[in-house]
Write a structure and sequence with these properties.
single chain; alpha+beta; 9-stranded antiparallel β-sheet; 8-stranded parallel β-barrel; 10 helices; 29% strand
Length: 584
């Protein structure tokens, strides 16, 4: 089979000049049962390709232990793209950004002695090379030259925003070549001089990422790659949300106008995103460069992104506006009109049982001891919460001091709630008083998302990195529980009980006659929700949004279980399942 070439200002597939109109669908943000539906709708909009990142941190949760099952079955996802008759663009990183936890880099790597990220550092390369040498042979089986859909593969990701180690980029490129990747390799960077200078190497095709002013962006790109062709690898047609901020939207006609401006010049485009999906569990990342106090901004559970297809699979006005533009450039494409997905309002589900978190620590994790509070990374922990316990002396009337909180700590003395300190808080003190016998200090720290972009990627270690003190006296001798919360089967529930600022798991059930997409109204102040044992993500009443998406494949006919971990206060002894999503 003839291959894929980029030369003479054009992309040629099997010798034919081809304008790529692609859309991002992350397999790891969408249930496998829904991949075919989302890909089919991409084809209906007129796309001829699907692009995806590959997430190192989920595929290698522990060093040398790889997982490619279920939602992580990359090959099955590529098979679905091929079955639909579309091309595929694969971006394996190892760094991906993607508003994904730690930018896709595994948390355990942060604890490696001497590691320096994304450069020719031996400690980093040992992990990087093992990952790529595991993933690339899987991708190789699906290359266009092997009869599959993959026509392009990216090395690294937006590297010019982070570094300028060209030897490292060439090292990654060589690993691709050594693994038999014989489709075009490319880089992608923002259209600024410093980004393109740092992230571009002449051995690879250059693409650029932007959301508007395409003529300016492509002109900037051509300063470094005059022969072209132009390719916007990330056309930001929407945007993501952080907790406590406004929900982002972008007008459909504005997106369509910018798309038309690119396509009429012959440029290729990848919608970032076509269908965003969901940051299930604890996978949402965060932003913050540490260049000013309080700049930490964790990403919400929904990754709807205001894309052409919603998080739950409905076409939007943006879908149809872009489809009309694409018709002009691919008039023979098999366009279609997707119907809205079936939704159901299952009503209220009573929460009938409870288990206090502080009383269930030993059922959720093995206890270990440490002189000072270790970080999650030092314990080999990827996600969730970490709990510290120590004994305070007495008597005294003083203040707890948290030099660094990553990212949110709740504190109790002898079970009495002292308060909460968040990473962005200017005041990191909590008043504490003990009697002559002292008191037991409990500290529950939540990882609300490792930073996914900028110089702090890989360095955002979670927990209490600088410990905790009574004023300046740093405390010692802690019991520690690493609460990944990936298995709640050890919990023992009693009667329903909800006490303010006493974190507890609350369990209930609801009946389903026919499965459909549904949405859970935020049940309290802050917490996490599991449906039939699957972690659908975090909620937080500071917004944006007021619902969590529950994919239909998670439900079963008959009785369905719901578990809510509420950290502060439930709204009611029940939860509400609605057919009306709310993201704003």
């Amino acid at each position: 089979m003839a291959g894929v070439e980029i030369s003479g200002g054009a992309i040629r597939i099997a010798g034919k000049p081809t304008q790529i109109i692609s859309g991002t669908i992350h397999y790891f943000r969408i249930r496998p049962e829904q991949w075919r539906d989302r890909i089919a709708k991409a084809k209906m909009m007129g796309l001829n390709a699907v692009e995806t990142y590959v997430c190192h941190n989920l595929h290698e949760p522990k060093p040398g232990q790889f997982d490619f099952a279920g939602m992580l079955d990359l090959e099955a996802f590529l098979d679905e793209i091929h079955r639909a008759g579309l091309y595929a663009i694969v971006r394996p990183g190892p760094y991906i950004c993607a508003e994904w936890e730690n930018g896709g880099l595994p948390a355990w790597l942060s604890a490696r002695p001497g590691v320096e990220f994304r450069c020719m550092n031996p400690a980093f390369l040992a992990a990087n090379d093992r990952y790529l040498n595991t993933v690339l042979p899987l991708v190789k089986k699906h290359l266009y030259t092997a009869g599959g859909p993959v026509i392009m593969l990216q090395i690294e990701n937006e590297y010019g925003s982070y570094g300028n180690d060209k030897a490292y980029l060439r090292h990654v490129r060589q690993i691709c070549l050594d693994n038999g990747i014989d489709v075009p390799l490319f880089t992608s960077d923002g259209p600024d001089d410093w980004m393109l200078q740092g992230g571009t190497i002449p051995e690879c095709f250059q693409t650029v990422n932007f959301g508007s002013r395409s003529a300016e962006a492509f002109a900037q790109s051509r300063k470094y790659r005059p022969e072209g062709p132009d390719f916007c690898m990330e056309f930001w047609n929407g945007w993501f949300d952080h907790w406590g901020e406004e929900h982002h939207t972008r007008a459909a006609d504005d997106v369509a106008q910018e798309l038309d401006a690119m396509l009429k010049t012959g440029a290729s485009v990848n919608f970032f995103v076509f269908c965003g999906g969901t940051n299930f569990g604890f996978t949402a990342g965060a932003n913050g460069n540490g260049d000013r106090p309080g700049d930490y901004a964790p990403t919400v559970t929904s990754y709807d992104y205001d894309g052409p297809l919603t998080e739950w699979g409905d076409p939007t006005p943006k879908f149809f506006a872009c489809q009309e533009v694409i018709r002009k450039y691919r008039p023979d494409a098999p366009f279609g009109t997707p119907s809205p997905v079936r939704k159901a309002a299952y009503g209220k589900a009573e929460l009938t049982e409870s288990a206090l978190l502080l009383e269930a620590l030993d059922r959720l994790a093995a206890k270990h001891e440490s002189v000072r509070p270790p970080t999650m990374e030092a314990c080999g922990q990827n996600f969730g919460f970490i709990h510290y316990r120590t004994k305070l002396s007495g008597p005294f009337d003083n203040r707890l001091y948290f030099p660094e909180v990553r990212d949110r700590v709740m504190a109790w003395a002898d079970g009495s709630y002292l308060g909460t300190v968040y990473r962005n808080d200017a005041d990191r003190f909590l008043p504490v008083r003990t009697g002559p016998a002292g008191a037991v200090l409990d500290l529950l720290v939540e990882n609300t998302g490792r930073i996914n972009y900028g110089p702090l990627v890989g360095r955002d270690c979670k927990g209490l990195p600088l410990g905790v003190g009574i004023t300046w006296q740093m405390l010692s001798n802690f019991e520690v529980w690493n609460l990944e919360l990936d298995d709640l089967s050890g919990l023992v529930y009693g009667p329903f009980s909800a006490e303010e600022n006493r974190p507890a798991f609350h369990r209930g059930s609801f009946d389903v006659t026919e499965t459909a997409e549904t949405f859970l109204e935020f049940p309290g102040v802050k917490g996490v929700v599991w449906i039939n044992g699957f972690n659908i993500g975090r909620y937080w009443n500071i917004g944006p949004g007021n619902t969590l998406y529950i994919p239909a494949p998670l439900l079963r006919k008959g009785k369905n279980e719901i578990v809510v971990l509420e950290l502060h206060k439930l709204n009611a002894p029940s939860v509400t399942l609605t057919d009306r999503p709310r993201l704003d």
